[in-house]
Structure of Ig-like domain-containing protein:
Amino acid sequence: SNKVFVTRQPNWPQIFSGETITLTCEVQGGETTKWMYEWRRSGTVIQRTNSKDWTFRVSKFSSGDYMCQCRKTDDWYSSTQCSEAITLSVSGESCLLSIDMLN
């Protein structure tokens, strides 16, 4: 079965509440297949996307382990294994963000 990898941008160890992050789900050897991407946080499906990229604003509730699992759009029962987890640890708002919001 196809192996699945999740990467993140930006890939800083620390991310602050209010910042935007993009998680990307790559299916090894599945480039020509149309996929539906299921995103799980701590085991629960929280988002489905037609694109391998999922961009969202991080909040203090976003901390957790994220995994991606893909299903073929023409065969819902044909799914990949889950990716390895990528862990987000969200800190309080950064000083920079607060300054940006004032301007």
Q: What stands out?
A: Strands lie at 4-9, 15-16, 20-27, 35-41, 44-49, 53-57, 64-72, 75-79, 86-88, 90-91. The CA atoms of residues 57 and 63 lie 12 Å apart. Helices lie at 95-102.
